[in-house]
Amino acid sequence: MKKPQKNKTKWWQDAIWGSIIGFINGFLGSGGGMIAVPILENLKKLESKSAHATAIAVMLPFSIISGVVYVFNLDFDWLIVGIMTLAATVGGVLGCFFLKKLSNKVIRIIFAVIMAFVGVWILVV
Q: Is 4 part of a structural domain of the chain?
């Protein structure tokens, strides 16, 4: 396992960005990862693989907390939750496998294409 990379930002800067990412995650439902990755790559100077892995680790507690709040405050379809959770688990395992195998450059390109596609889709649909 590699040593964590040193960076020049202060803890309070990380806390501010974490708060922003947490708010977006709670507001949009895990949309914070789309902001966390560019922050980790550009401001924290992590390589793409490390940025994606770190973003997922950061998003886990946000997602659990947001999910608990949603369970007690909103109505949603439990069947869809069950099916999508199982499918997302399989997809997550496959995604981790490919993240490990692909180069940082390819990962950045794929991420940029997905972000662009989703951005256009949100505007059009």
A: no
Sign of CA dihedral 50, 115, 108, 106: positive
Number of domains in the chain: 1
Answer yes or no: is pLDDT of 4 > 60: no
> Are 47 and 104 spatial neighbours (Cβ–Cβ below 8 Å)?
yes
Given a cut of 60, whether residue 34 has pLDDT beyond it is yes
Check whether 3 has a pLDDT greater than 70: no
- For residue 5, is it within any domain? no
Helices (H) and strands (E) in the chain, counts: 5, 0
Q: Is residue 6 part of a domain?
A: no
Q: How confident is the model at residue 117 (pLDDT cuts 50, 70, 90)?
A: very high
Domain encompassing residue 110: 11-124
Q: What angle do CA 105, 34, 60 make, to 5 degrees?
A: 105
